Amino acid sequence: MLEKLRIYENLDEKKFLSTLQSNTIFYKNNQTIAYSLGDRNVIGIIEEGSANLVRFDYNGERTIVEELYSGDIFSDMFYSSTNSELLVIATSDCKVTFVSYDELINKAQTSINALSFLDNLISLITDKLVKRNERIELLTTRTIRNKLLAYFELQTKKINSKSFDLEYTYTDLADYLAIDRSAMMRELKHLKEDGFINDINRKITLLY
Amino acid sequence: MLEKLRIYENLDEKKFLSTLQSNTIFYKNNQTIAYSLGDRNVIGIIEEGSANLVRFDYNGERTIVEELYSGDIFSDMFYSSTNSELLVIATSDCKVTFVSYDELINKAQTSINALSFLDNLISLITDKLVKRNERIELLTTRTIRNKLLAYFELQTKKINSKSFDLEYTYTDLADYLAIDRSAMMRELKHLKEDGFINDINRKITLLY
DNA sequence: GTAAAATTGTTGCAAATGCAACAGTTTTTT
DNA sequence: AAAAAACTGTTGCATTTGCAACAATTTTAC
Predict the structure, then answer these.
(1) Mean pLDDT of B74-90
(2) Which pLDDT score, from 0 to 100, does residue A113 have?
(3) By the 8 A CB rule, do A114 and A108 touch?
(4) Looking at chain A, which residue has its C-alpha nearest residue B157?
(5) I need a surface site. Which of A30, A191, B36, B44 has the fewest CB within 10 A?
């Protein structure tokens, strides 16, 4: 039995979805999830599986903007339309439900389920905002060393321990911190040499 | 007569605020706006005036995280509590109203005003998210030249014109892009020399 | 309207960073 | 089980960037 998704907390999911004109679609791995159906204000919910929100630069280069897992939501509402083209691409077979935000607001007047959904929606959006604020805090430090240390400190603070397992590959971490991978590896070596950290296969320990 | 703030759109502000235990406080310029009153989930609304959300690093250095103007909202909900200390400091005499998010959700079941407020709240939060996404897009480009061009392109796309007036001082722009100011000035000169841009006191024009 | 503070514009220099390239390892695919 | 792909680890080198410092200009405060 699957755990209840955060977006459906405190509400009767079946009843709620039946009152809206929601639609649920299954996608195969690597398929593009077409969610920008002309009209804005549609919210996609990853019910099962995972997907990536990716951006294609003018020169065709691909960047992962956000990794989406079961329970995550995505929407055009969160991205400026002036930016480069964004696509959501399944990274595994997945099940996605779409609901209309406008309809949701209408229904919230009469449906306690819709109101709870709205509450959960705010919680998920503020979570995204928190994550973005964290990332900006990392990106605005000026040196690779500081970026790494800030990232490591953030992780250790989150789990309240001096050690943690890297959730990214080094390649992806370099991407997340927007730095050159080889330069990052070099700095990582310096941090070890200078006794700031320990790194035993993917487990980072802060030594200060 | 003041224009209606976005957060109060489609609702009777007076009636709405009277149903909640909201409180409105006046602050003098440079005063600290204490909003983190132990309990989380309080939303502050800048009714009049302006303020800065600032962070103090471990070494005491001050960074402006967000500039708040009339109509903007702020809340602990949007920031990870593991981060450094955040303060809201008035940058002019201002009037701030605080409402409890939890109370708001409760009231939304019965009050159409509260529901509209919730709708507006989502709109303002997603706006913040859009802005953060934009900033991250700029911060993840690798060179000063690309940061500047990306910023300039974003501005021109927004107003659909090749020219625009800088909304920041150069000092602040360097801060926003997280680059050294003097290095930015140097690169700006190169961009002019190479015919990419024109800069006639604060008015930037893209020449491509 | 004058003084003080902030911003702009510039430069030399040292340090940090990105780039390119490649070998070794691990993971994924077929 | 073999082949392909992705990731890790490393280095030399050129370039970019940050830092420090200062004069000139503009803005703000009293």
Answers:
(1) 81
(2) 93
(3) yes
(4) A82
(5) A30
